[in-house]
């Protein structure tokens, strides 16, 4: 596996990956519609196949992870991608890395806490607002858990 920065060279393939796995390139975070096609990030490759992707943005001294997907789970892909973002955030002198996950995402809630992230905020019932911007967000999430809240995690650098 090797990790490559999102660049002009691979942007089209990255956007195809996002469309294929997310069915759209728009995401809603804390009530904000975000165009994933223009985010910075890193992709994990097995030869020329993308097997993982992390996107992030840096602003106001914070780095925010916007998405993280691994197609080869439990082989270190997710951790390697998070570490690349942490390196980038440290270079940019960010004080924290933050991210949002949803209340149904038990795997992510475990994964981030085991990697030093702490639960910082709860955006209660925020998916109701998010569905107004993106009606395709389902009512049920993983394990048929009602998809209702965003949980913010952060990690000091
Ligand atoms: C959450 C997610 C990104 C994790 O990616 P991943 O590639 O499985 O991550 P890793 O392999 O680095 O780590 C996952 C677990 O596998 C374990 N692992 C890593 N390599 C391993 C190996 N060779 N053998 C056994 N276990 C291994 C890790 O220790 C980790 O366990 P832990 O979380 O209990 O510490 C992935 O499950 C995913 O894409 N989920 C769907 C999308 C999503 O929910 N994204 C996050 C929303 S913000």
Give short descriptive properties of this protein.
single chain, 157 residues, alpha+beta, Aminopeptidase, seven-stranded mixed beta sheet, two-stranded antiparallel sheet, 4 helices, 9 strands, globular, binds coenzyme A
What this model shows, in words?
With 157 residues, this protein is α+β, with helices and mostly antiparallel strands. The protein has one domain (2-156): Aminopeptidase (3-Layer(aba) Sandwich), CATH 3.40.630.30. It is built from four helices and nine strands, in the order E-H-E-E-E-E-E-H-E-H-E-H-E. Strand 2 and strand 3 form a beta hairpin. The site of coenzyme A has 18 residues, from strand 6, helix 2, strand 7 and helix 3.
β-sheet strand percentage: 35-45%
Task: Summarize the main sheet.
Answer: 7 strands, mixed
**SSE order, one letter for each helix or strand:** EHEEEEEHEHEHE
Bound molecule types? coenzyme A
The helicity comes to 25-40%
Query: What structural class results from the helix and strand content?
Result: alpha+beta
Determine Rg (CA atoms, Å): 15 Å
In the residues, how many domains can be counted? 1
User: CATH class, anyone?
Assistant: Alpha Beta
The helix tally amounts to: 4
CATH topology-level name: Aminopeptidase
Strand adjacency order, main sheet:
1-4-5-6-7-9-8
User: How does CATH name the architecture?
Assistant: 3-Layer(aba) Sandwich
Going by CATH, what is the homologous superfamily? Gcn5-related N-acetyltransferase (GNAT)
Instruction: Detail the poorly predicted runs.
Output: none
Question: Can you give the mean pLDDT?
Answer: 96
Number of strands: 9
Terminal-residue CA separation: 26 Å
